[in-house]
Amino acid sequence: MLEESFETNPSHSIDGVPSEPDPKYFDDDGRPKRTGTIWTTSSHIITAVIGSGVLSLAWAVAQLGWIAGPVTMILFSLVTLHTSSMLAECYRYGDPIFGKRSYTFVDAVRNILGGLQYKVCGIIQYLYLYGSAIGYSIAAPISMMEITRSRCLHKSGGKDPCRISTNPYMIGFGILEIFVSQIPEFHETWWLSVIAAVMSFIYSIIGVFLVTAQVAANGTVKGTLTGGGAEIVSTTKKVMGIFQAIGNIAFAYSYSQILIEIQDTIKNPPSEVKTMKAATVLSVSVTTSFYMLCGCMGYAAFGEQAPGNLLTGFTSYNPSWVIDAANATVVIHLVGAYQVYVQPVFAFIEKGAAKRWPQTKVEYKIFSGYNLNLFRIVWRTIFVIVTTFVAMLIPFFNDVLGFLGAVGFWPLTVFYPVEMYIVQKQIPKWSSKWIWLEIVSLVCLIASVLAALGSIASIVNNLTTYKPFNSEY
């Protein structure tokens, strides 16, 4: 028989008088003890950062060339590392040890910057997270499809072009995410993030191995100092390609919008700030190393012909199981990355619904460790279906990644962390540190605007020849 369950009151009582929650089992905010460590935190970050974005880096370097490409990646890594460390300082409002906790990115904005910025930030953040889900709904099916295409090409000896529609694979990925999306809360996805992080290492290592082998087979390092892509194009189109490449690199480094959510899973002591900063340094260092290897070695292997998705450049590689394994690990990783990005959206909607309609909180115990919530099942299923539909409508991998990177990088990775840090640390206006932080923010704003222009121009150009729901690769 189904049993109805409710939230457990964490406090004990003596003779009917409530007492404080037992610190052995509950944190200072009355919530169950957080258990996150530097390793689980790093797993969440790596899962969020090393996503589909790494696959587009060789193409991005091809647009920028041997000088600007690596330099741009290093600059973005330094900006991300610096602003993430500042954002970690804003997890607790006021005192970094005993101050009020912020459970989400937008909570931190509300606590430090106020209500208006909270509303603006919330709109930007949740649109970005939703857009990331669309990006992953495009990227994962491409890898799924490449496994089938690889088998087709090897079976026909390369005679059959093996044109395959992405739609069935997008639908299949959507169905899988419907089930995975029933994981109730963000902190319960830690095991999925660990698996996804391992998968990201595997396909990144395979990618580095493949491009290194390709460079050796070529007997030369391809590419030019200024780049420019595979086609002879007009100056305007080349400039737009450069702008889009900047957006792709920005997307590859974006994770600040879920940093506070990740930090809220960390146990104390040591302080959440200390653990988060250490995990940030570790994660950004690891991801930058992989990015440089994949992006630069990919460009060295393919030159101006670098594909938008690195793994699609090895469809005819032998033995085929190597590239198939790489694509399979991409899919597994993106299943986890999808959840890392959408769980904050789920939490936002469900908390709002519970506040307005308390009956949506009612759960039914199905078996040990899982409670059934009808509202959660219905609304999350609708969310995944709509996301899959949009991905099928606009399946432009590089364009979508570039646009998301452009839209999300400046406000979420730079502007809000900088502004909150200035208020949190009470940095005087017009002081040297204040001026430096604002200059960094302004430069990143300009880069984001240019990247958005490049991606929008590319999307508009593709839409002129694209037939909805009829994409083949």
TrEMBL record:
Residues 34-459 form the Amino acid transporter transmembrane domain. The chain crosses the membrane at residues 38-59, 66-88, 123-145, 166-184, 190-212, 278-301, 321-341, 377-397, 403-423, 435-460. Keywords: Amino-acid transport, Auxin signaling pathway, Cell membrane, Membrane, Symport, Transmembrane, Transmembrane helix, Transport. It is found in: Cell membrane; Endomembrane system. Residues 1-29 are annotated as: Disordered. Gene3D superfamilies: Amino acid/polyamine transporter I. GO terms for molecular function: symporter activity. The keyword Transcription regulation does not apply. Belongs to the amino acid/polyamine transporter 2 family. Amino acid/auxin permease (AAAP) (TC 2.A.18.1) subfamily. Carrier protein involved in proton-driven auxin influx. Mediates the formation of auxin gradient from developing leaves (site of auxin biosynthesis) to tips by contributing to the loading of auxin in vascular tissues and facilitating acropetal (base to tip) auxin transport within inner tissues of the root apex, and basipetal (tip to base) auxin transport within outer tissues of the root apex. May be involved in lateral roots and nodules formation. It comes from the Eukaryota. This is Amino acid permease 3. GO terms for cellular component: endomembrane system; plasma membrane. Signal peptide: none annotated. Pfam families: Aa_trans. GO terms for biological process: amino acid transport; auxin-activated signaling pathway. InterPro entries: AA_transpt_TM (IPR013057). It is a multi-pass membrane protein.
